[in-house]
Amino acid sequence: MKVSISSxxxxxxxxxxxxxxxxxxxNLDTSFQFIDLYDFMTFxxxxxxxxxxxxxxxxxxxxxxxxKAAVSLQELSKKNYGAKxxxxxxxxxxxxxxxxxxNAASTIMVLNKMWGLNLNQDQMMNIGRTIGADVPFFxxxxxxxxxxxxxxxxxxxx
Length: 158
Prior knowledge:
This protein is of the alpha+beta class and 158 residues long. Helices cover 28% and strands 38% of the residues. The protein contains 4 helices and 6 strands, in the order E-E-E-H-E-H-H-H-E-E. Strands 1, 2, 3, 4, 5 and 6 form a 6-stranded mixed β-sheet that branches.
């Protein structure tokens, strides 16, 4: 099985930082909007390892959100599922456009289906929260007003 998807970027139309939680995250009031900028990802089943192939040499193979998301699902399944994940990065790294969070969310959603885990959206969002504050937004798949650490949503019209 092979799945190819586009992993979108986002912008914050406004951002108000409120207070800081004990876990280091900030509570905020923001508005997330998807934009037409994408990384392109391809997922293929593999025996039992997570392999990442990328056009961006600055992505460390085991210290990125894609790998962390895949390993989280692998551990949750308690099975030796594997995947080869190819990513063509177009979203600039560290630009605040959510590229890494989008890639993690895409990984969670695709591998959930590919591996037959049958996780619902809330379960996937909870896994995403352990990887990054913006990951749940990308799993939610809708432009939204957000509060909390950016993981409590109120849908907005585009």
